[in-house]
Amino acid sequence: MTRSLRNLFMGLVVLFMALPLVVVAGVSLNGGQQLLFPPRNPSLRWYAELFIAQDWLNALTNSLIIAISSAALALAIAFPLAWFVWRYRTGYGRLLYGLGIAPFTLPPVITALGFLVFWTAAGWHGSIVATIVSHAVFLVTLPLVTISLGLAAIDRQVIEAATTMGADEATVFRTVVLPLVRPYLISSYAFVFVLSLNEYIVAYMVAGFTVETLPIKIFNSLRYGYTPVMGVVAVVFVLLAALIFGLIARFGDLPKLLGAWSKE
Amino acid sequence: MSDLRPRGLPARLPVLWPAAMLLLFFVVPFGIMLAVSFSHQVEGGFYEPGFELANYARFLDPFFGRALLFSFWISVLAAAIVIAVAFPFTYCLTRLRRRAQVPFLVFVLAVLSLSEVIIGFAWSTLLSRTAGLSNLLVWIGLIPRAQAWTPSFGALLMGLCYLGFPYTVLILYPALSRLDPEIPEASRTLGASPLRTFFLVIVPVLRAPLLGALIMVFVFNLGAYLLPQVLGRPQHWTLSVHITDQAVFQSNLPFAAAMAIFLVLFSLAFIGLTMVLGGQREAAR
User: Fold this and answer.
1) Does the model's pTM come out above 0.95?
2) What CATH code would you report for B70-284?
3) pLDDT tens-digit series, residues B254-274
4) Which chain A residues touch B21 with a CB distance below 8 Å?
5) C-alpha to C-alpha distance for B108 and B126, rounded to whole angstroms
6) Which residue in B1, B18, B135 is closest to A160 by CB distance?
7) What is the ipTM of this complex?
8) What integer is the mean pLDDT of B193-207?
9) What is the tally of structural domains in chain A?
10) Are A111 and A187 in a shared domain?
């Protein structure tokens, strides 16, 4: 494609992707309760509302607690498994790896329903711990794939050199493997954090009526009418995601992380 | 690296913990769900253990057939549209210099991470009467009065495409960015126009990843749960919505579980198809 045609096409697609976000950002600035675009009496009062109104603040806190802890738990599950599969060649290792990929490939409602019946049977239905564990297992695919990518990029000769020089398994892990996969650990933590923050169906099925997260709160409020606060949440989430992925891109190699060859 | 097999328990320790977590919190719930799908539904939202196919027999209802057909139809349609846009987009993206790709990738990732709730809210605002696009048309003078374009089939389709687009770009990205730049160059040198090169060289070379992506987006769309409720009317509810509705509001867990099991098999069949296609591609090399 000629350059100008290509730029036009890409510009149009980006415009289409940005359009809903622009309108949402616009309505979040309304001074009144109504969602108008362009906004009338522009003010930031709904931005304050998110951090002041008790119900929105509650949902925000729940979401943050869940995202922070489930990302850590997902990493704690994925890292040893990814390392094991990379280090040893075993049938059960691969099987477990496949199992870790499964929650993300199936329609999420299935995993969500599985969690619903499981937590009901276990008597933990409605607890925030159940939401955290469910999110960690549901999103474990991301760190598993990302960390495996990072491990695969390690030059085996480096490991061999370390072993020849007399390093044992633990020393190799601590001094060679860990520093090399650190960027991948950080980015997969960020991936899970952002996705957990935005996840709806699992959180809803596991504890939707007791632990209200921001997406659940928005959906519940949608039924009673729209308020500009929803626009505020959308804007905050987009900016947060852009910031986090921007940082990953700044300190890491984003194209490589997403599967391009290492360097052109 | 010396040995490729773990020796003794200490070497296997690291895998025990993830294994336990995945078995307890993924396999066991699945097993319970399978058991529930064969249970007997009792009045009042309870069920008792048993083995009956009554819940599966309800698949013969026209109700279920309609929901399934509709889910299938709109997911295929949205997947086809998304691929038609995302494939050339991703191709253009990967032809950019690496540094220039980064802002696009950050944007795509940010949109990908957005909750379905937020996307639903954004689109229903964009298509609404008070803040929507129709105001723009009024301003230009194309239509006399602003109107609401949601809920409707078109709104739902639009939302699904929006939801699936960033996902598709990221699925296609590895294959496209690894495409040997000499292939399009050769085609250009031999005198083909850029568009000809794209359709007669790039598309055929990448048809396997293309088909794989189509199936993955299709399965991804099947999972859409909130958009049909926010942007569609009740007749636009997909299987995912019905499963949740049965589980949470109708308190009919056995039927919900049966539908979920069906959806699993349905999705697995398509994912299996993707793998077979991928395998053929490997074999062809």
Assistant:
1) no
2) 1.10.3720.10
3) 888 998 998 888 888 887 887
4) 77, 136-137
5) 20
6) B1
7) 0.85
8) 84
9) 2
10) yes
